[in-house]
Design a protein that fits this description.
Blueprint lengths: L7 H14 L3 E6 L30 H14 L6 E6 L6 H13 L3 E4 L9 H8 L13 H12 L5 H11 L3 H14 L2 E4 L2 E4 L7 H11 L4 H13 L4 H7 L2 H9 L3 E6 L2 E6 L2 H9 L3 H17 L7 H12 L4 H13 L3 H13 L4 H13 L3 H14 L3 H16 L9 H9 L3 H15 L5 H7 L14 H12 L3 H10 L13 H16 L3 H15 L6 H17 L2 H17 L3 H17 L3 H13 L9 H14 L3 H18 L2 H28 L5 H14 L3 H14 L2 H17 L3 H15 L8 H4 L1 H6 L2 H11 L4 H8 L3 H15 L7 H5 L6
Helix pairs in contact: 2-3, 3-4, 6-7, 9-11, 9-12, 9-13, 10-13, 13-14, 14-15, 15-16, 15-17, 16-17, 17-18, 17-19, 18-19, 19-20, 19-21, 20-21, 21-23, 22-23, 23-25, 24-25, 25-26, 25-27, 26-27, 27-28, 27-29, 28-29, 29-30, 29-31, 30-31, 31-32, 31-33, 32-33, 33-34, 34-35, 35-36, 36-37, 40-42, 41-42
Length: 848
């Protein structure tokens, strides 16, 4: 039992397949509205042509039931029988009674599908009421199941905005989802972009879905169709609109049919379409003239009712936009409301409509801002330059200057002429706006300096951080404090600030969400991943209904950072690609480079070298200036991309550069991470002492665990590596825990401790199963590393990547003869005949 389209018939047919495989006989029938008028009409396919005996008529129901029951049972030929009836709520009385008798007498196992919300014959109800059959509720799919289904069908991840759009539109109905996806694929609206599926436009309805919905609509009266059309163009409908524009009996009939639904909204009752697809189908049949008439009528009713809530402004303005007759003030207010919801296309339409009605500076600013957020910087700059000449107040001049600055810097990554801010700051008297302009100046200048220089320059501000609202400059200072390793201090500063505990609202600008981002990443770097995850989960619930908001881009970015440290690599890639796509769509090319770096690392750590290289190329194609503060992360991304391609020397070089740069500029988070990466790639002895010293300057448990891993590996101490794996697992960094356990297993195998080695391998396997395809050297090549020395393994890895003996000798500072010896011993130990078999042999890991 369940709603139409949830898959009841599909499930039943799979049960029939199982029955046949087990040697059972199967009889199948379908009930329809037409068969309801015929005695035993639904079961005609499984009944004999007519009753036995000339004196028996169809009106002798009792004898008919006995004979039909025997006849159905005899078709099984002595085998157990399953009688399947689809849409059993449409059974006629005789068929329903016969099905009940078959179950009651044990002559057959009955399997039925019933649509919920329908009138069901009493004999069918008696089946589950009297425990003759089990009633199984088939519900619509939750969002998590929809995501799993889409990923399985499409063969790749789906970005959250598209997932939300499809989930909202199908309302958990698999049949509707299937048709939406088919339509979107056929039209090109749904396509793979950088390894992730995204909706580029609204999905198109398939003819089959339109026909199915039209069949569900049935034969509507003119009055009923008018109500549906009204709801399709202007839902939700309030009581006033219904009273003035709709037939009350038609409203009741449509709700009884399940086509509309009523909900309480405070003291108001609102009517909505029961399913978005109903609105899609109804709108197809509404002409442009009819739509204008309907929207105009709705707007007039809303305007005459007097008292309106603030959220009604956008609805009313949208109706006037479609139907005409809106005032400049209404359309401008609607544009501002749309901007608050981050619906920039609608904000621009309303703002330009307001301008056509004579609106002034406010509408012009919203229109220019909407062009900026939709990735049209040249148009935005032209309109803002014109606005700058017409600005009449300090607030207007400052707002224009700030947006022009953001348009150049955040959208294009170009550092604009700082005089744009300085000149306006010097010409205005309002201290609030002057501080905003100077704050933005210091914010952008910080990106060309390292953490140590930024903190030293702004050290005087540290004493005031808890006593005033945080600004963009404060955000930069706190981020650099974190990169400098002063994590506990930053966490205390956030805790001392009165607004720090609250997650910003989705309509807040980028500064509060940047501060939220700093707060989360500080917790992650400190090893407090569980706290960060709790905060991000709460934030996600806040922004989930605003997939195009800048807030969503920040939340997705930090979810990617969290998943990357957790070792959930494909989740990290999906969130990162979702974030950089959102940033680009919102005109934030400069910010997009940050999640791009996480996406590259996630793919590389999963061994997907080609995709990582492609994403790295896309990062370069952004054409925005690199940030010195992000350079160590960019180098780490290049390093792991090289490692995934088998170029370990290049990977080592990138990481050594990252560690040196981090230490030089005070990016101790970057330096510690790079040194840990070097240890993971087989250079623990070279970096352990340096990493241990740097880790003492970084607050939190994560840096300490990284240093302990390198020290234990350098000392070849399997016991300590096991404890390090415990520490990593407790922190939530599962991939690091798997790597530590795998390294312990290798050492134990070499020591001949087979049982303990097997236990460590099994633990590594269990942890690795949670890492979504991780393929780093510590876990991806356990078998080979057990058999080979480090020198043989490094040589074999480079040979498998296609390097010649001469190249390998130069990179490893060995003679060609030594390289040849390493390779020959590797062939013998791996049981292969030559170079062409190396790649497969190295990745052979039966234990994991």
């Amino acid at each position: 039992m369940g709603p139409a389209g949830v898959g009841k018939t599909t499930l039943a047919l799979r049960y029939l397949e199982l029955a046949r495989k087990r040697g059972m006989a199967v009889a199948r029938a379908s009930a329809t509205r037409a068969s309801q008028a015929l005695p035993f009409g639904a079961l005609a396919p499984v009944l004999p042509p007519g009753p036995d005996g000339d004196d028996l008529g169809r009106d002798n129901q009792t004898e008919l039931l006995r004979r039909y029951g025997r006849a159905v049972a005899e078709t099984a030929g002595g085998r157990p029988l399953v009688v399947f009836v689809d849409d059993a709520h449409l059974l006629d009385g005789g068929s329903a009674t016969l099905v009940h008798q078959l179950a009651l007498t044990g002559k057959a196992t009955v399997l039925l599908t019933v649509q919920s919300g329908q009138t069901v014959p009493d004999p069918v109800v008696a089946l589950w009421k009297d425990a003759l059959a089990e009633r199984i509720e088939v519900a619509v799919l939750p969002d998590a199941a929809i995501e799993e289904l889409l990923v399985t069908v499409l063969g790749g991840p789906v970005d959250t905005a598209s997932l939300r759009q499809l989930a909202d539109h199908c309302r958990g109905n698999p049949m509707v989802l299937r048709e939406l996806v088919i339509g979107a694929l056929d039209s090109g609206a749904l396509a793979a972009d950088g390894g992730i599926w995204r909706l580029r436009s609204e999905p198109r309805l398939t003819a089959r879905l339109v026909e199915l919905v039209a069949l569900r609509l049935g034969n509507l009266t003119d009055a009923e169709r008018a109500v549906l059309e009204l709801a399709a163009v202007g839902e939700p409908l309030g009581q006033a609109e219904l009273a003035r524009l709709a037939d009350p009996r038609s409203v009741e009939t449509l709700e009884r049919k399940g086509l509309i639904t009523s909900r309480a909204d405070g003291r108001r009752v609102q009517v909505w379409l029961a399913h978005p697809v109903v609105g899609d189908v109804v709108r197809v049949g509404v002409s442009v003239l009819r739509e204008r008439a309907l929207t105009r009528s709705l707007a007039e009713v809303i305007e005459t009712t007097g008292a309106r809530r603030r959220e009604d402004t956008l609805r009313l303005a949208s109706l006037r936009l479609a139907g005409g007759g809106g005032s400049a003030s209404l359309l401008q207010a609607g544009a501002i409301a749309a901007r608050a919801r981050h619906d920039h296309p609608l904000a621009e339409q309303l703002a330009r409509a307001a301008l056509a009605e004579g609106a002034g500076f406010g509408a012009r600013f919203v229109a220019a801002e909407a062009a900026h957020f939709q990735g049209r910087p040249a148009q935005a700059e032209r309109e803002l330059a014109s606005l700058a000449a017409d600005a009449a107040s300090d607030a207007e001049r400052a707002r224009v200057a700030l947006l022009r600055f953001d348009n150049a810097f955040l959208l294009q990554g170009r550092v604009p002429d700082l005089r744009l801010l300085d000149d306006v700051a010097g010409a205005i008297a309002d201290p609030f706006w002057r501080d905003q302009l100077l704050d933005r100046r210091s914010f952008v200048m910080s990106f060309s300096r390292g953490p140590r220089a930024v903190v030293e320059t702004a050290s005087a501000s540290l004493g005031h951080l808890g006593s005033e609202p945080f600004t963009a400059a404060h955000m930069v200072l706190m981020y650099n404090l974190s990169r400098l390793g002063r994590l506990d201090e930053v966490i205390r500063l956030f805790g001392a600030h009165p607004a720090s505990a609250a997650i910003p609202s989705p309509d807040q600008p980028w500064v509060p969400w940047s501060l939220f981002s700093v707060r989360v990443i500080t917790l992650i770097w400190a090893g407090r991943l569980h706290e960060a995850e709790e905060l991000l989960t709460r934030a996600q619930s806040v922004v989930i209904d605003q997939p195009a908001a800048e807030a969503s881009a920040f939340v997705a970015y930090r979810l990617a950072s969290l998943h990357l440290e957790q070792g959930r690599l494909m989740s990290a890639f999906r969130r990162a690609s979702e974030s950089y796509t959102l940033f680009q769509q919102l005109g934030r090319g400069f910010a997009a480079q940050l999640p791009y770096t996480d996406a590259v690392q996630a793919l590389a750590l999963a061994g997907q070298a080609d995709r990582a290289a492609g994403t790295l190329a896309a990062l370069g194609a952004l054409g925005v200036p690199a940030m010195l503060i992000n350079e160590t992360e960019a180098l780490r991304a290049r390093a792991w991309t090289a490692a995934a391609a088998g170029d370990l020397p290049a990977a080592r070089q990138h990481l050594e550069t990252a560690a040196d740069l981090g230490q030089e500029i005070g990016d101790l988070i970057g330096a510690v991470s790079a040194l840990h990466d070097l240890a993971r790639l087989g250079h623990a002895r070279q970096v352990s002492a340096r990493l241990a010293a740097l880790a003492t300057q970084v607050d939190g448990d994560l840096a300490a665990a990284r240093a302990a891993y390198a020290s234990a590996l350098a000392a070849r101490d399997s016991e300590v590596l096991g404890k390090v794996a415990d520490d990593f697992e407790d922190l939530g960094t599962i991939l690091y825990a798997a790597e530590a356990s795998a390294e312990a297993a290798v050492l134990l195998r070499h020591a001949g401790e087979t049982r303990r080695a097997a236990a460590a391998e099994q633990r590594a396997a269990r942890l690795l199963a949670r890492c979504e395809g991780a393929a780093t050297p510590p876990v991806g090549f356990i078998t080979a590393r057990v058999r080979l020395t480090q020198g043989e393994f490094d040589t074999a890895m480079q040979a498998a990547a296609g390097r010649s003996n001469k190249q390998i000798a130069a990179e490893m500072q060995l003679s060609v003869r030594t390289v040849e010896s390493h390779l020959q011993r590797a062939y013998e130990k791996l049981g292969i005949s030559g170079r062409h078999e190396l790649a497969g042999a190295l990745q052979d890991q039966p234990a994991v």
